[in-house]
Specification:
heterodimer, A: alpha/beta, Rossmann fold, six-stranded mixed β-sheet, four-stranded antiparallel β-sheet, 9 helices, 33% helix, 28% strand, elongated, B: 130 residues, two-stranded antiparallel sheet
Chain lengths: 296, 130
Amino acid sequence: MTAALEAVGLGKRYGRRWGLRGCTLAVPSGRVVGLVGPNGAGKTTLLHLAVGLLQPSEGSIAVLGDAPASGPAALARFGFLAQDSPTYPRLTVADHLRMGAWLNPSWDEAFAARRIRELGLDPRQRAGTLSGGQRAQLALTLAVAKRPEVLLLDEPVASLDPLARREFLQTLMEVVAAHGVTVVLSSHLIADLERVCDYLAVLVAGRVAVSGDVDALIASHHRLVGPRRDRLPANQQVIEASYTDRQSTMLVRSHDPVLDPVWSVAPVTLDDLVLAYLRQARDDAPASSPALAVAR
Amino acid sequence: MIEFILDPSSGVATYQQLVQQVHQALRLGLLEPGDRLPTAQQVVASLAINPNTVLKAYRDLERAGLVRARPGLGTFVVGRLPRTDPAAQARFRTSMVGWLRSARDAGLTPDEIEAIYRTAFRDCLTEGVA
């Protein structure tokens, strides 16, 4: 099966700084993929590389097996919604649909018209006068009506209020249920992703810290609490550990069940898991400026 | 038809919550053989969750012999959960209330009583598994 999105050793340099480096990721198709990471982790850079708005400085990336934007056929296969759902403020809702129909060979007129009706949007209204939530829904309608196989969304709900956020994700999930499109969406809020994503990639400082099926990730990570220990069996990978003089608390990755009776084992939430990887990456990162030298 | 709700703070996986709610509805008699479960599309539209999650829950229920998917028609309840005899339920409830009263009379605080119950419950259930 062709990966929906595949990056190998992908890097993008902005001047002297790397926005993304050594990024290797294979996203299976038919999934809803969450791309999580703090601001500046490289989420937007990765998405822009995927759609051909940026060229890689090193490595390669492919969408559905094709190099990004390699021709009209490749362009027709994915839809991209940039951050803050850009629309043309002076064009009306109807203008946007007409433009979508002109520009996209596989345009689904019936879907677009029905969607606008369901949203209760006035076709004569200018996009600039729509609310943030309505504008996001209009932009999503355009991206979906071109009937892409892969939909890439950059922070689609970050600027929306809670109600608009829920409605946007409802629409998106209905589209996934109806058309089986692969979705890759980025967010710095895990709560947004928890409900909708079944595949997760955590991006920190331009690298993929962890990625995989959400249920498999949750099932293979455990929180252990027990008497102080500095060593663990070899089949467990410690993501995070904290100690008091008596107690050890760890978040470990282990495919086998933890049977040692000294540990009390608790499941982790997606939130715990992502935060542990974010902290691990931060603590492992080489200092970008020289560390302070201590004069002796 | 039942409607699913989600408790994001429960720490229970979403598909597991859906499975549990169907079990609960079967136990309470809200769902009976022949009833149709909401379609993935309906669940997705109301909860804004991934359709794969709904399908996963339904597959789990199907494996347990509780529902069957009929292509093009929907997913239907075909099984029942064994319901314990109401008289037995009442008997255990009475003896539990008696135990709780005696614990309170012995001066245990509600927190202590709950902790005893929880650890005993867990020990008892893991006995069966191991």
